[in-house]
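WARN retry 2 of 3 for item q-0093 after timeout on previous attempt; input resubmitted unchanged.
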Amino acid sequence: MKDATVKPKRMRGDWRDKLPKKPWITAILAVLLVYFLLFIGQPLAEGAWCLPNDYMGYYSAGQIMNAEEPSLVYDFDLLKEYQANLYQACGFDGSDLEPLAMLYLPVFFLPFQLFAIIDIQSASFYGSY
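OK item q-0093 returned
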C-alpha cells in the first residue's frame, strides 16, 4: 500500500523549474517587479497618462520637426508655444510655463519626431516609461 504523504512528481517543464535556484534572487526579482508595477501603475490609476516633465519638451521638438523645419527646434518662442499647447492638452495650465530649451543636435530628435506622430498621451506612456 502506498504512503498517503507522497507528493506526486512535477511534470517536466513546470514554471517553477524556470525560477532561479537561489531563493534570494527570486526575492529580489519579486521586489523589483512589485516596485516597477507600482511605479508605472500608480500614475496610470490616477489618470495621469501624461505628466509635465522633460519628455514634453522633446515631444514638442519632434512636433516642430514634423510641422516646421528642423532648425526651428532652437527657437525659444516657438518651443514655448508648442510646449504650452502640450501642457493644456494634458490638463495642466501652460500659461506660466518655463519651456525646456533644446541643446542637442537635430539628429538626436529623430526618435521624438517619430513619437510626435501619435498623440501625447500614448507617446508619453511609451516614451517616458
